[in-house]
Design a protein that fits this description.
The chain is mostly beta strands. Helices cover 9% and strands 51% of the residues. The protein has two domains: 187 residues, Porin (Beta Barrel); 408 residues, Beta Barrel (Porin). The termini are far apart. The N terminus is likely disordered.
Length: 674
């Protein structure tokens, strides 16, 4: 009974409290409140708004950066190039990253990622220390990452394991490289950064890393002291771009746009090309410093390039192409005037090296009238432009990006590999060791024709990586577009001239003949001064059927002076045919067959016969015959963007020498682009 009374009074008290609460709320309103309204009036604890961007998932990307630091006392560090920034032990570097992240409901983002960075080419303007120098090649890390999502931004900290590769290069008394040794270092890394959403699966980042690697000793009894301790400590600042391949569209986040096609403001493209070339033994009764060895040999090259574009304003665009390159051409890209691999750089490397191959600004001035569509592509933003226009380009690029183009024979990553087939071989175009220069190009385009001209830096001496405006190269080209039997074609006519620090063949021959004790190559090096080389080229491409095209080139230079930039050819004729595979059910496959014949001026051949060597050939003596080349390839499209090619080249009279050869060169090439 007592328990029942207690329950009754408790329930009654609760009822009175509820009634009083209702009356109090009602007094503050002009109308009775519903139960739902009462709930809305009761204060609740604030809940954080969700992040606008979900950072979860797998990501892959690339980066470029600038770094510095120390390799330790007494190491004589080599300094790498950094474009406009001071040279350091890393210079400008580039590489790749990949990882996985998960975003928690409280916006905390946790993940793990790995990256690898490769340093730039060594600065050629820096005096080389003697008797040895040490260099940084690559560094990689595996880091745990913790961040906090703030809208479309992700600030984070990271720390983990690091490794690096350094090498020591030993020189002889004359400064010639005689030995190299490398070591792997292990250590740790820590840093921080911020990542930001760009569009859909794309994000950019700025990242700082400190890398501390354990010291390692290089033992060599020929240097003093015999033990050199290399102790790397690096500071690295990176700018990167990430792509999440499995990202999905989100109505709350940034607009999900298909990269490169639906946005004309910016684009990203990448390519990678691997080429393996080899040849068997061939007849070689003698050989010189620049000869292709008579014993069989195989070599490979690999490049990976990013093509980044951004529209600055109406008609204004900026492009940047960082590239990693590794490997060597046959015999270090020596021994053939029409060299067999267009990807083989004269400055090859056993480990990947990063270079900023292209960075340029393009301004297009429309002249009104009819417009044309511009497809998205590498170094080309999608949109529309006037057919009648003036275009100005300033920066670093390859001369072949603008001149001597051809739809069937121009790109050694996709069609013919031999230098004498994808270029006008007698045009000694300005270039550093990888084939690029700095300068300006102006083009006037009309519907049926175009005219373009350029001015460029040339190397300080033949085959140098140092470009200078103290000397210069110019080229002008006229392009005519036509139809023959309703099939499109183009004819390009060009004139060129380079003023460079080069020697004259006939002068070197005369001085060496007067004093047999002199080496003709030493004589040539001492008589270099500002001299002029000039010439012309013609370039034809003609479609003859829907899937068949033909091409032809002819080029000539005056042949009085050393070759400075490209290759040792003074006269060249080339041509061939390109056939698409639609007729055999492989529309994206291509067969190419081409041939070239290269020749030298009388002065040039006499110089080689007297024991001279140039930038790419020189057997010590010469039984002159024109160099003759035949190339055939089949490009098999495995899937969209991936092509596997098989290539064969036959070279008679390699380096113009009838005493040597012929040479059969076999190659396979894998090219991927997106």
């Amino acid at each position: 009974m007592i328990r029942g009374r207690m329950i009754f009074w408790t329930n009654a008290a609760d009822a009175l409290r509820r009634a009083a609460l209702t009356a109090a709320f009602a007094a503050t309103t002009s109308a009775p409140l519903a139960a739902a309204d009462l709930i809305k009036k009761i204060p609740t604890k604030a809940v954080p708004a969700p992040s606008l961007y979900d950072w979860s998932g797998l990501f892959v990307g690339g980066h470029v950066g600038y770094g510095g630091g120390s390799l330790g006392a007494g190491t004589h560090p080599a300094l790498d190039q950094a474009v406009i920034l001071p040279s350091t032990i890393t210079g400008l570097f580039g590489g790749f990253q990949a990882g996985y992240r998960t975003q928690l409901p409280n916006r905390l983002v946790l993940g793990i990622e790995g990256d690898v960075s490769f340093s730039n080419a060594i600065d050629p303007t820096r005096p080389r220390p003697e008797p040895f120098e040490t260099a940084f090649d690559a560094v990689g890390t595996v880091r745990g990452v913790a961040g906090y999502a703030v809208g479309n931004w992700l600030p984070y900290v990271a720390a983990g394991f690091a490794w690096g590769r350094t090498h020591l290069a030993l020189d002889d008394a004359n400064g010639n490289r005689v030995q190299e040794r490398s070591h792997l270092h292990l250590g740790w890394t820590a840093g921080a950064g911020i990542e930001f959403a760009i569009a859909g699966p794309w994000s950019g980042r700025i990242d700082y890393q400190y890398v501390d690697l354990a010291s390692h000793g290089f033992l060599n009894e020929t240097i003093a002291p015999p033990l050199t301790s290399v102790d790397p400590h690096l500071h690295m600042i990176k700018a990167g771009l990430n792509f999440r391949p499995f990202a999905t569209a989100s109505t709350d986040g940034p607009v999900f746009a298909k990269p490169n096609t639906e946005s004309s403001t910016w684009n990203v493209h990448v390519q990678s090309t691997f080429i393996e070339q080899a040849y068997p033994n061939f007849r070689s009764p003698y050989q010189g410093a620049n000869s292709l060895p008579g014993t069989g040999q195989g070599r490979e090259t690999w490049t990976a390039t990013a093509f980044l574009g951004w529209r600055l304003w109406q008609g204004g665009e900026i492009y940047f192409n960082p590239e990693l390159a590794q490997g060597f051409g046959l015999n270090g890209t020596l021994g053939l005037a029409g060299f067999s691999n267009g990807e083989a750089q004269k400055g090859g490397a056993p480990v990947p090296r990063m270079r900023a191959q292209r960075y340029f600004v393009r301004q297009t001035f429309g002249l009104g009238g009819e417009q044309e569509d511009v497809a998205d592509g590498p170094n080309q933003l999608a949109g529309k432009r006037d057919i009648d226009r003036v275009t100005v380009t300033i920066g670093r690029f390859a001369v072949g990006d603008f001149f001597d183009g051809n739809s069937y024979a121009k790109d050694p990553r996709a069609d013919f590999m031999n230098w004498a087939l994808w270029a006008a071989a007698a045009y000694d175009f300005p270039a550093d060791l990888p084939g690029f220069t700095r300068g300006a190009v102006v083009e006037l385009n009309r519907k049926d024709w175009a005219v373009r001209a350029g001015y460029f830096q040339v190397p300080s001496v033949p085959n140098s990586d140092i470009l200078t405006f103290n000397t210069g190269g110019v080229v002008a080209e006229f392009e005519e577009r036509h139809k023959m039997f309703d099939q499109p074609g183009k004819l390009r006519l060009g004139v060129f001239a380079n003023r460079g620090n080069v020697g004259i063949f006939r002068d070197a021959i005369s001085i060496a003949a007067a004093d047999p004790a002199l080496d003709i190559n030493d004589v040539m090096a001492t008589i270099r001064k500002q001299n002029l080389k000039y010439g012309v080229y013609a370039n034809l491409e003609q479609q003859v059927a829907a899937d068949v095209g033909v091409f032809a080139r002819a080029s000539w230079n005056n042949g009085h002076t050393e070759t400075e930039n490209f290759t040792q050819v003074d006269r060249s004729l080339s041509g061939g045919v390109s056939i698409k595979g639609a007729s055999w059910g492989r529309a994206d496959d291509t067969i190419g067959i081409g041939a070239a014949i290269n020749g030298l001026s009388r002065d040039h051949r006499d110089f080689l016969a007297a024991g001279g060597t140039g930038i790419i050939i020189g057997d010590g003596r010469l039984n002159y015959r024109p160099e003759q080349i035949v190339e055939a390839y089949y490009a098999w499209a495995i899937r969209q963007g991936v092509v596997w090619s098989f290539d064969y080249q036959f070279v008679a009279n390699p380096a113009y020498n009838a005493d040597r050869g012929p040479v059969s060169i076999f190659a396979t090439r894998v090219h991927a682009e997106w």
